[in-house]
Amino acid sequence: MSIRNQILIAFVLIFFGCLLVNVSRAADAVPQIPADATSEQVDAILAGMSDEQVRALLLEELRKEALAPAATQEKNLAQVFSAKLARVHERFDYLFGDAAQAAEDIPDVVFKAVSGRGKVPLIDLAKGIVLLSLIWIGVRMFYRRKTRNLRNIIETTPKEWGFFRKVLRLCMRASIDLFGIVLSSVVILGVYLFLYEQSSEAKPIILSWFITVLLVDFVGLVARFVLVPKAEGLRYLPLSNETAMTVYQWVLWISRIAALGLLISFLILLQGEAERWYLLSLAVTSFIVVCGISLLVVWEARNGTAALRKNTQIGSLRYQVAGIWHVMLVTLLFFGWLCWLVVLMVRGSGAVIPAVATILSVPVYCIVNWLAQQLVDCMSGVALKTGGCQPIETSEGQFEEAKVESEQETTTVNTEAVEHTQDSSDQVVQSLPATTALRFCNFLKVSFRVGIFLLIFMGLLNIWGVPVRVGLDTAGSFIGILFTIVVAYILWALISVAIERKIDAYHAKDNESGGSAGGDRFATLLQLFRKFLFGFLVVVVSLIILSSLGIDITPLLAGASVFGLAIGFGAQTLVKDIISGIFFLMDDAFRVNDYIQVGNSMGTVEEISIRALKLRHHRGSLFTIPFGTINFVTNMSRGFAIMKLEYLVPFDTDVNKIKKIIKRINKEVREDPDLDALLLDDIKSQGVKAIEQYGLRMRVKFMTKPGGQWSIRKIVYTKMRQIFKEEGIEFARPTVAVHVPKGEQLTPEQQQELSAAAQNMADDDAAAQAKGTK
């Protein structure tokens, strides 16, 4: 394409661009409606506009309305707060301004409702309530009589049964009771619909009575499920029969008082009276209920303290809190009542259901959380039993493994002898998952607590009408993060248990075969593999968490790639060390606790990291040697160790006698169990190795486990010196013979010079021999 054509195309594009801008500006030129325009002026302006202009004007007005709340939010916070306080003050003046008249007005309202002076005739109320009450009582008595035998069978349960078996029986009994309530409700509703027409004024009041009766029955159902007052075998709480029955009776009476207060509140509401009397009756009813619960708490304070302090260490935080639990609970109850009162008075009748839901959320959370903890404890116990461990139940209901204690005698590296039996190895392998399972159970318990709390909290926000879109997104992100952590933890626990079992299996095999006293190469490789997997899981989980929080991880991945590439080019020595170490371990060149020599360094392998190994010299020095610098390795801890001891005896020594002495030494060493465990073969005399200048060079040979040759050598040398002395055998030592001509007498000075010369020759020979030995 030529330059002329390119310029032409550019001008064409510029022309059309300007045209589009002008068109858009023309379209945006929408006639504005004055703020003080009358309806006739608005109609005239709209009549002279096109459809596009009308749509544009509508969009502009909608845009202004959307921006109005934002402009409102820009007000001074102090003014907003003052307005809220003024609203609260106004509501309290309205509700409590005529509180002195409540004692006269509320009874008058109730009397009007039941005397026929209100909207509902008295005859309809009396007929309906009496008839329905008799039908309700009759149906319940008939149903209980028919299900008495079944209930007795369910309640006849041994105390020794487990928690979930008891809960299953209780669920069966609760299902029977619930079916009875449903059956009675169906009968009552049938009679109710038959007696009253659609337009009857008595129907709302009868329905209010029915709701309060259902409330009392449902509270009794829950109380029987939790307290189990008449079936001690089914009771899972640590309560006596007297305490359970007392609390149950208190709960029933409190529920009846609450039902009566609610019925009065419904009557006030149905008579169309002022809102303040309805709210005031609810406040008084709730206050009476809180006082009743507080009296129950104080009445049972001593029993509750004893139950909370059971299996608790004296002086602990739980022990001290158990002494004042009733004070804390009563304070919490009245504080909650005050909060409910404030919300109820400020927000009106619309806050009744949210407030009740908020109050009920506390026991719901406690019950659901407790059931979740019991479920985790039960499943952990089943898992431990299935895995071969014997769990024991602690005071807090948790299951712990029975610890297997094994005694080991360890000496220095030169005298170490580690030996396990097959039974102890099996016990260790069986108890491996227990600790990991308990840690995982604690993690699950915390996760359940947080998850249940979040679900209830988000539900309460929804009930209160709070915009929870952001909250739901946050809860969803948190649940995703929690799920990721749980899956990663489960995966890590499974990998750790599998690696530990593999390591113990290899150790058991080595101990059974009487092999090396050092660690296994597979154990080292598996430890490195576990570290790598742990780092990998941490990185992946971190990226998933960041992604769940809404953070774009693409730059992180790109940066990690560049960083990895830079490391690949700039850290070649590090990569060389890591790769060399992996191949050294795969070749089984050394293991942890092996005694090796690398170049001029010698010592015990104390630690194997990703890029280097650490050697501990027997004098205490610690050598850190990168794998990439190792050319060869001398391992002194593999399979067995052969020691050959050389010594000199005079030329006239009886060799057969020395062989018998060595056999005697072997017998005495074998009699010691610790030394016999180190020997893999008998201590043998190999006879004369060489005839040297000063005597016969003989040798003793024995085979031991790695590291045990040094202990056997000390014992053999000590016994040889002792027995040789008893048998009159001396070790040969260098001697110098000086020949003097016959008949020649030496002066003392000459004798001294000859002795000095002979000593010098003996020293030179000894030094030369020592140098040759090295």
TrEMBL record:
The chain crosses the membrane at residues 125-143, 174-194, 206-227, 247-271, 277-301, 322-346, 352-372, 446-466, 478-499, 532-551, 557-575. PROSITE patterns: PROKAR_LIPOPROTEIN. InterPro entries: LSM_dom_sf, MS_channel_C, MscS_beta-dom_sf, MscS_channel_2nd, MscS_channel_C_sf, MscS_channel_TM-2, YbiO_bact. GO terms for cellular component: plasma membrane. Pfam families: MS_channel_2nd, MS_channel_3rd. It comes from the Bacteria. GO terms for molecular function: mechanosensitive monoatomic ion channel activity. Residues 573-638 form the Mechanosensitive ion channel MscS domain. Belongs to the MscS (TC 1.A.23) family. This is Small-conductance mechanosensitive channel. The lineage of its organism: Bacteria, Pseudomonadati, Thermodesulfobacteriota, Desulfovibrionia, Desulfovibrionales.
